[in-house]
Amino acid sequence: MPDTPAALELRDVAKSFGPVRALRSGSLRVEAGSIHALVGENGAGKSTLVKIVAGLYRRDAGDYLLAGTSVDFRNTAEAKQAGVAVIYQEPTLFPDLSVTENIFMGRQPTNRWGRIDRAAMRTEVVELFARLGVPIEPDRPTEGLSIADQQLIEIAKALSLDAKVLIMDEPTAALSGNEVERLMTVARTLRDQGCAVVFISHRFDEVFALCDTITVMRDGAYISTDPIADVTEDEIVRRLVGREVSDLYPKLEATVGKPLLEVRGLTRTGLFQDISLTVREGEIVGLAGLVGAGRSEVAQAIFGVDPYESGEVTLDGQPVPPGDPRRAIEMGLAFVPEDRRQHGLVLDAPISRNITLPTSGRLARTGLISTGIENRSAADWAARLEVKAATLDTLAGTLSGGNQQKVVLAKWLSTQPKVLIIDEPTRGIDVGTKSEVHRLLSTLAQEGLGILMISSELPEVLGMADRVIVLSEGHQTAELSRAEATPETVMRAATAHHSTTLNVSEAS
């Protein structure tokens, strides 16, 4: 054990909520001047551990030390005052206030006349962003800023409070590739300046590129800590799930049948141009491309959420009217959106209500739906998708990310669709649940469902798709069979100039 006290140390910390033990034995040691990954499946206890560090929860047992001194924070204000800051995936800033006002909210300095010293505030903010190496205008309102810029403001706020421990909780989930790179550069800058950074993420490529050390948690308990250079991704996956995960992409053999979804010449100026694709029975078609390629916009237009100017969409040979999602659902089209919390779920409604929403008209008797009918209908799908919850009355907003995704899938599968469009099927969920979702999609395809899958994760596209259609800057640049799709062929097509449509030989 090193002689110098760690910047942050937790030893066998426990926390229960009534009979539920959220954290059985959480341990974490983070050195100053390091970036430490904390990984675990949803439900592993990471969030509870972070909330104890941040002063939101008080521990039931165990030790919590900062720079070797035992602490027991009663609230988040005490934790911040002691130099602990947490940067969440979705920052909470005041949109009508300026960047500077947000950073100094509640602790504005005053001049000798007792008035707020705006010049001093602005000067310090300029120095903070210079220290981080990012150009953000101190006087502009935060409304309209990207999530990435908002996170940087939260980091600047933490530094203004002289934070020694900075926890980044899934900070890259909603960021583009360039924004992720910038955030990682900032994290390295903070490490080099002596800060202890805890980085929580499901994205192993980022963890292995950024972090010095990695701690694994499982089922509310500490499993292991290693220098990142001494472990492989496969070893970490085995520790996360407690078993071998030899096949994260369980692609089952399926009989590909007749065309179901056919899109011809779909165009919306400035977003996508002349998109044509076909999805057949039993087939998973991957829609790949870099951020901004237009994949989600195409999916939303097909389903009728967004308009398009020209082109046509047919389902099982029948025209799907543009801009009419209700009719698309009636015809057999289902759409799981990228942002399940904003657009896929009613968070303050129970699981049963969420699952039966699209079929409520069919379940109603004289305009009313009985709780019994609603629960019976929802129970079948919740059981098939193995939604983990105490009861169907559990509010959707309290579920883990993986279980929320299962509820959204159950909701749409209850409509008995012919074609499922699913945007980012495993974003923000842990590796074990990813495997479950992949197995479900593969089983559905085997049963004859046509699936159009949009994913930013190239291994997911290559592992699950029978064919891959690649977009670049709103234009279709390649269509590749499963055998032809490789990291090289897909990435070359994804970065191709939109005036070029690559054939397989060119892409390879």
TrEMBL record:
<dbReference type="InterPro" id="IPR027417">
    <property type="entry name" value="P-loop_NTPase"/>
</dbReference>
<dbReference type="GO" id="GO:0005886">
    <property type="term" value="C:plasma membrane"/>
</dbReference>
<dbReference type="InterPro" id="IPR017871">
    <property type="entry name" value="ABC_transporter-like_CS"/>
</dbReference>
<keyword id="KW-0547">Nucleotide-binding</keyword>
<keyword id="KW-0762">Sugar transport</keyword>
<feature type="domain" description="ABC transporter">
    <location>
        <begin position="8"/>
        <end position="244"/>
    </location>
</feature>
<keyword id="KW-1003">Cell membrane</keyword>
<keyword id="KW-1278">Translocase</keyword>
<protein>
    <submittedName>
        <fullName>D-xylose ABC transporter ATP-binding protein</fullName>
    </submittedName>
</protein>
<keyword id="KW-0677">Repeat</keyword>
<dbReference type="GO" id="GO:0005524">
    <property type="term" value="F:ATP binding"/>
</dbReference>
<dbReference type="Pfam" id="PF00005">
    <property type="entry name" value="ABC_tran"/>
</dbReference>
<dbReference type="GO" id="GO:0016887">
    <property type="term" value="F:ATP hydrolysis activity"/>
</dbReference>
<dbReference type="InterPro" id="IPR050107">
    <property type="entry name" value="ABC_carbohydrate_import_ATPase"/>
</dbReference>
<keyword id="KW-0472">Membrane</keyword>
<keyword id="KW-0067">ATP-binding</keyword>
<keyword id="KW-0813">Transport</keyword>
<dbReference type="InterPro" id="IPR003439">
    <property type="entry name" value="ABC_transporter-like_ATP-bd"/>
</dbReference>
<feature type="domain" description="ABC transporter">
    <location>
        <begin position="243"/>
        <end position="498"/>
    </location>
</feature>
<dbReference type="InterPro" id="IPR003593">
    <property type="entry name" value="AAA+_ATPase"/>
</dbReference>
